[in-house]
Design brief:
The protein is mostly helical. The chain has a domain of 61 residues: 30s Ribosomal Protein S18 (Irregular), CATH 4.10.640.10. The chain is built from 4 helices and no strands.
């Protein structure tokens, strides 16, 4: 029998290391969010087609507003769906 000193695991215990969130727009120097680029905008949508919040994407407030406006314009022009089952 194993004592307290000899505890063995089948898999090593996972330690979650939080990555530093960053704004991909500031990092790459993007100044304009193009609403006609649907593939790029899909990165900011979940499977149902909803816009992901800043706390998940790491986008700054300034660019989150621009992304939201671009997604809404793309939906209006039918480049992106309003609602879907599996977008990705």
């Amino acid at each position: 029998m194993a004592t307290n000193n000899e505890i063995r695991y089948l898999n090593p215990p996972t330690v979650e290391v939080k990555k530093k969130k960053y704004c991909r727009f500031k990092k790459t120097g993007i100044k304009y969010v193009d609403y006609k680029d649907a593939e790029f905008l899909k990165r900011f949508l979940n499977e149902q087609g909803k816009i992901l919040p800043r706390r998940l994407t790491g986008t700054s407030l300034k660019f989150q507003k621009k992304v939201a406006q671009a997604v809404k314009r793309a939906r209006h022009l039918a480049l992106l769906p309003y609602v879907t089952d599996l977008l990705k």
